[in-house]
């Protein structure tokens, strides 16, 4: 699906090399790690020639907490709360990605209702993450109203998640084999109300931004990424689709029953910041579409199982633990000594930032051998010099915003 | 995700691209086509996978420390092809202190992945122009994802202590009026 777009007539030619009166002497500028426009503790070392950026070096690691090592010390099940803190604007998406990798290693099948609930949670997470992108990028480029608009809608998503999980952030509601609890009708009602209102809100925001001359000039032809570059630099997700590659893991390698949902994959034409913005806005609309379909599937699977019945990996229900000796033993075994079969497995989901994958290796004991997190954000940070070198300093803010990363996931 | 690589053509394509280079097919639990190669041919294998088999993108590079085993490390490269939409994984065993060939020239996006691998495991990559630590501080003396690195860390307050010592050495008591 190609997005409709348009072109303003450019009145002033871009600044050439000879026109720059400040050309000749370079200085080093340190942007971050405490800078509001770097979206977290990212530090960028920039060598400036006048206002032109000659050499750029991102420095990451300020938020490194050793998550992969924590997984090795905690064990498979107890690592779930830590996955929330990776990309902390979409905790449930990280939960699902990790759970899917473990299920693939264990050969476990999730019941249908569990898959539907997961898809609903993932699409709500995607909308929430794209709202953060839209609000923060807009406030960095001077459109302060957008920040309040998007955060108002994010608050509604928090209300839904609060009603379902009891937490606003860091929900940890996904388990190996399904989800922790069923979605009831109150939550469904909240979701339906939210989904009915959101498309009109998105249209309103587009009126503020898409045709806005300042927004257009700050984003169009800034940070142009070709298809070949995007592939070679391991970029995925909206950054890859903005460059015109129609690739979405939900379509090409479906998981959690995504093959049953109807949605389209938006694709850009130029590969600049403006295309990446258009792609993300359209993705929000498509997420609304998918979430609407999950509501239908929720009705048709009402009363079904949402957690697999496999006592090697899945905790028994609490009421049965209190009455049955066997279930009590299972509970004790799973909490103290959860073992996954020996071997390796990789599973990736289409997160809001790109391909979020977990590579898990087990040696058959309860202590994980390795859990590697393939973070899309790290690859997005790596591409900053590629897009920004040779451009003006003010473009840096637009490029950092449009690449869209969260430092919790980059540094792990 | 394609499980039977034979049916979709991944296995024949990779086999054809790697003709003449020794490789062993593995059967991982996720069913992904995976091969094991020796360190001496790893560079050729990766180059051929990109040039002949069309794997345009590197998904991740990571290490696995299987400590009691010899050789100790396992280096894992996972590649992805957009045109064929399939993946392949390459496993290489390395002893402590052995280096691997860098593939930054083939996939520029591999630069951070190799830096992270060096940072976490101490595996060095020949031909990497800027091989330094990625996540840990530059003067950190350890490789934390090695199995012999303790979970609670080594001197976790070292940086604070150095800062404090430095601060005290510059500190002079305030002169009081006589």
Can you walk through the features of this model?
- The complex is a heterodimer of chains A (412) and B (178).
- Chain A has 412 residues and is mainly alpha-helical.
- Chain A has one domain: Orthogonal Bundle (Cytochrome-c3 Hydrogenase, chain B), CATH 1.10.645.
- A three-stranded antiparallel beta sheet of chain A has the order 1-2-3. Chain A has a three-stranded antiparallel beta sheet with strand order 6-7-8. A two-stranded antiparallel sheet of chain A has the order 4-5.
- In chain A, helix 5 runs antiparallel to helix 6.
- The longest helix of chain A is centred in the first third of the chain and has 29 residues.
- Chain A is globular, with a radius of gyration of 23 Å.
- The model of chain A has no long low-confidence stretch (mean pLDDT 88).
- Chain B has 178 residues and is α/β, with parallel strands linked by helices.
- In chain B, the strands form two sheets. Chain B has a five-stranded mixed beta sheet. A two-stranded parallel ribbon of chain B has the order 6-7.
- In chain B, strand 1 and strand 2 form a beta hairpin.
- The longest helix of chain B has 12 residues.
- Chain B starts with a helix and ends in a 9-residue tail after the last helix.
Multimer state: heterodimer
CATH topology name of chain B: Beta Polymerase, domain 2
The description of the largest β-sheet of chain B is: 5 strands, mixed
Proportion of residues in helical segments of chain A: 40-55%
Instruction: Encode the helix/strand succession of chain B as letters.
Output: HHEEHEEEEHEH
SSE class of chain A = mainly alpha
Greatest interface by residues involved: A-B, 46 and 40 residues
- Enumerate the spans of chain A where pLDDT stays under 50 for 5 or more consecutive residues: none
CATH class of chain B: Alpha Beta
């Amino acid at each position: 699906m190609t997005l409709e777009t348009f072109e303003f007539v450019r009145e002033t030619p871009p600044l050439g090399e000879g026109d720059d009166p400040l050309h000749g002497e370079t200085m080093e500028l340190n942007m971050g790690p405490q800078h509001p426009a770097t979206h977290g503790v990212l530090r960028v070392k920039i060598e400036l020639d006048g206002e032109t950026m000659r050499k750029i070096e991102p420095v990451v690691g300020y938020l490194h907490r050793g998550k992969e090592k924590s997984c090795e010390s905690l064990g498979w099940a107890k690592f779930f709360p830590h996955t929330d803190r990776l990309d902390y604007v979409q905790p449930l998406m990280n939960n699902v990605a990790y759970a899917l990798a473990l299920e693939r290693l264990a050969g476990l099948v999730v019941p249908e209702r569990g898959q539907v609930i997961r898809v609903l949670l993932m699409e709500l997470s995607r909308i929430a993450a794209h709202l953060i992108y839209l609000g923060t990028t807009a406030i960095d480029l001077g459109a302060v109203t957008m920040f309040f608009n998007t955060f108002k809608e994010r608050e509604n998503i928090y209300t839904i998640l609060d009603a379902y999980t009891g937490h606003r952030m860091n929900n940890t509601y996904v388990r190996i084999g399904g989800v922790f609890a069923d979605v009831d009708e109150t939550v469904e009602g909240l979701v339906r109300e939210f989904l009915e209102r959101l498309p009109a809100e998105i249209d309103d925001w587009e009126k503020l931004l898409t045709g806005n001359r300042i927004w257009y000039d700050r984003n169009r032809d800034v940070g142009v990424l070709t298809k070949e570059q995007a592939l070679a630099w391991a970029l995925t997700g909206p950054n890859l689709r903005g460059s015109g590659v129609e690739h979405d893991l939900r379509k090409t390698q479906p998981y959690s029953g995504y093959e049953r949902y109807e949605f389209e994959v938006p694709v850009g034409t130029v590969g600049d910041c403006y295309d990446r913005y258009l792609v993300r806005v359209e993705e929000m609309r498509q997420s609304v579409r998918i979430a609407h379909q999950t509501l239908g599937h929720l009705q048709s699977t009402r009363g079904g199982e949402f957690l697999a019945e496999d006592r090697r990996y899945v905790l028994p229900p609490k009421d049965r633990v209190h009455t049955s000796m066997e279930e009590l033993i299972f509970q004790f075994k799973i909490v103290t000594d959860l073992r996954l079969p020996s071997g390796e497995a990789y599973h990736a989901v289409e997160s809001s930032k790109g391909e979020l994958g977990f590579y898990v290796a087990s040696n058959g004991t309860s202590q994980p051998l390795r859990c590697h997190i393939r973070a899309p954000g790290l690859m997005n940070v790596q591409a900053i010099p590629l897009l920004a070198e040779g451009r003006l300093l003010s473009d840096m803010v637009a490029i950092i915003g449009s690449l869209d990363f969260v430092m919790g996931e980059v540094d792990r | 995700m394609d499980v039977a690589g034979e049916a979709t053509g991944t296995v024949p394509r990779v086999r054809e691209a790697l003709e003449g280079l020794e490789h062993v097919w593995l059967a991982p639990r996720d069913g992904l086509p995976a091969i094991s190669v020796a360190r001496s041919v790893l560079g050729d294998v990766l180059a051929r996978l990109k040039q002949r088999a069309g794997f345009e993108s590197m998904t991740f590079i990571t290490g696995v420390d299987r400590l009691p085993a010899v050789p100790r490390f396992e280096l894992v490269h996972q590649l992805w092809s957009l045109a064929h939409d399939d993946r392949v994984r390459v496993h290489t065993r390395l002893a402590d202190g052995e280096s691997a060939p860098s593939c930054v020239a083939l996939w520029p996006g591999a630069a951070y992945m190799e830096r992270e691998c060096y940072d976490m495991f101490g595996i060095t990559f020949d031909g990497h122009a800027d091989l330094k630590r990625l996540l840990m501080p530059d003067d950190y003396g350890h490789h934390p994802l090695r199995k012999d690195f303790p979970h609670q860390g080594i001197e976790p307050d070292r940086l604070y202590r150095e800062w404090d010592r430095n601060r005290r050495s510059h500190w002079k008591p305030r002169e009081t009026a006589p």
